[in-house]
Amino acid sequence: MTRAGLSLPDYSRAAWLHSLGRNASYLTKVAAMPTLETLDRFIARVEQNAHAEAIEEFYTENGYIQENQSLPRVGRDALVSRERAVMARAKKITSTCVRPVFVNGDLAVIRWIFHFEWLDGTVTDMEEMAYQHWEGQRIAGETFFYDPTQRTPKKA
Known about the structure:
Elements: E1 2-3, E2 6-7, H1 13-19, H2 24-28, H3 36-47, H4 51-58, E3 59-67, E4 73-74, H5 76-88, E5 90-104, E6 107-118, E7 122-135, E8 138-145, E9 154-155
Parallel strand pairs: 3-8
Antiparallel strand pairs: 1-2, 3-4, 5-6, 6-7, 7-8, 7-9
Helix pairs in contact: 3-4, 4-5
């Protein structure tokens, strides 16, 4: 298997899925979709800029986040810790969901626009698509798709 152009000979697809808490029985069952109420509550938390809290409240214990084609970061506690570190570098954040949100079974796609004002006086504007896999009312995995050049902070 390759990810982000890297060969991962010691990490078969089955091992990778298993590391994310998946197993053969999971792959053969249909996961329940999130309710619209749950999606609205998740979006509201993010738009309140409570990003770490949204991860705590809505991700499964073994949930993952993947950015573009990079390797996923796995585990809710690690995701929360990283999110808090990023938020600590910001003076102000504006998070906006651009509706509509698309839902098909256990999959959802959300378009986000973020504006970060960093403590060093620079700003970052990002637009991304979040592709989410839900297990009932919790996010099991989320992949963000965006132009990586947006991540470079600019002078305000």
